[in-house]
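Working notes for the structural subgroup meeting. M.R. asked for a predicted model of this chain before we commit to crystallization trials. I am recording the input and output together here so anyone reviewing the notebook later can reproduce the run.

Input as submitted:
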Amino acid sequence: MIYRYSGHSGVQLPVLSLGLWHNFGDVDCFDESVRMILKAFDSGICHFDLANNYGPPPGSAETNFGRIFHGYLESHRDEVFISSKAGHRMWEGVYGDGCSRKNIIASCDQSLRRTGLEYFDVFYCHRYDGVTPVEESMQALIDIVRQGKALYVGISKFPPEQQLQAYELLREAHVPCLLSQYRCSLFDRKAQRSNFHLAADAGSGIVCFSPLAQGLLTGKYDGGIPSGSRAAKESGFLKVSQVTEGRVEAARQLGEVARRRGQTLAQMALAWVLNDERVTSVILGTSSARQLESNINALANLSFSEEELQEINTIVADEALSF
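Returned structure, recorded in token form:
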């Protein structure tokens, strides 16, 4: 495994992390979840990324992770880095959604109970909700650290203006933002253009999620929508309407570049995100230990020639591919 420092801090993360957004809920195979987490740990992936609403149902990913962690990895607590988040809808009612102090602190307490952990290594504000003052959300994170419930704090998906405001507030409180989490892939380069430089300048590490565009950058949709895929699942976040002819054709062309590099399309897509040196880690969302192993093999070839990058940029230049 390769490790990179998180911004200006002394914390190193593996360049590939395991995310539990999908495939770790109560609707999924628990035994396969065990295999994926243990495969990740044995491969040097020590960063596990959670959120309070991951499932389905919401909360079940944290509960299942806690079962697996305490059953197999509890003696390795100081060798792993565990993150969780709050800010999206978790339970019904006015206090179950958003980024108020009420919601963030209650969510952190609930997440600790579900996982059975004494603290998180980093706790994120999962989004800017457009209503709560950034000062209120950041003070909640600051207090979570001072109460010993998390070692570090992070932000996720904040627009540039609020992103800068969050960095300043946290820096003034001497609880700097360790990590900034944004979606990034060959089909989604918006954060790379608008947010990465702000994070890097502030000394925050960058963690990228959805590097395979919910599976569109794997080649699995070349022949239509297979059963069991994210687009085919009722609980999936990839919609059938997003599997457009243009994206499928672009994925086919990218797959040709990957084959010439001796990689699968998924491996090349991961390597492309990691080619940005500002990126600390990329979150993998896998459905099996076998798929996880294949993704880890992306590390065998992370470098690109100028010609390859130019060809890739030409293929993904159409803004209609972005989502």
